[in-house]
């Protein structure tokens, strides 16, 4: 498996409370660590994969450091309580980008995602910059060639940029073009978009592509719109750019949001997706541990990931 490394068991450490009761468990005690990339051994489980990459962020003139996110988030998740759903998590390690070969790393992740999905695993990827999304989405499209695959992106940015090469700002334009190549519809909803952070050219591209757009100011009343989108597709891919959260909740990203969508609101939007029976793939991207001096942002991201795994049906 190109670019692959197993996760270090040292990342999964925490407090042992089993003296209280046999079910006083935390994630580090229930997660399965795979010594090899072997999704076929873990059918119907949730594959936890890291994409250790920030080459796309660098190309997009952002703050580098997201390559360290997967392992930082593992540490933050490790000591959280293990409840229903968390025992399905299997750590299948990291796809590591070798700078400057972003495209090679994306192809490796794309192949890994397709293999996991064909092995009847669902995929939960810890990015990495939002260049993660092209690889994750492409792998899902490959695995479900005859299905309507809907992308729900919680993000301050549309990420539909035109550029000479792939960046963290181009993944959904790339996925739209891939859908064109495969002669299939492009189903894309972007929720939490900041009008102040997206040029008119990007809004025009979203309109041309038929994108469902919900601005950050309107997320408190977006449930019906999202439900309508979910009803129109067969499979859901949920991608969460952590810069959708306000800067005071999530400062450790490439582009912190001055307004953003509060975590409680984000969770309210995510719960129906997790319970829909259509959610097949999730990722959290753009976390940058270099700008998280006291670990608060990692705890916010970890709680979000914890909740998704708990709700995922």
TrEMBL record:
Its EC number is 3.5.3.8. It is an enzyme of class 3 (hydrolase). Keywords: Histidine metabolism, Hydrolase, Manganese, Metal-binding. Pathway: Amino-acid degradation; L-histidine degradation into L-glutamate; L-glutamate from N-formimidoyl-L-glutamate (hydrolase route): step 1/1. Mn(2+) 2 binds at residues 155, 157, 241, 243. Its cofactor is Mn(2+). Mn(2+) 1 binds at residues 130, 155, 159, 241. PROSITE patterns: ARGINASE_2. It holds the Pfam family Arginase. Binds 2 manganese ions per subunit. Signal peptide: none annotated. It catalyses: N-formimidoyl-L-glutamate + H2O = formamide + L-glutamate. CDD domains: Formimidoylglutamase (cd09988). Catalyzes the conversion of N-formimidoyl-L-glutamate to L-glutamate and formamide. Belongs to the arginase family. This is Formimidoylglutamase. The lineage of its organism: Bacteria, Pseudomonadati, Pseudomonadota, Gammaproteobacteria, Enterobacterales.
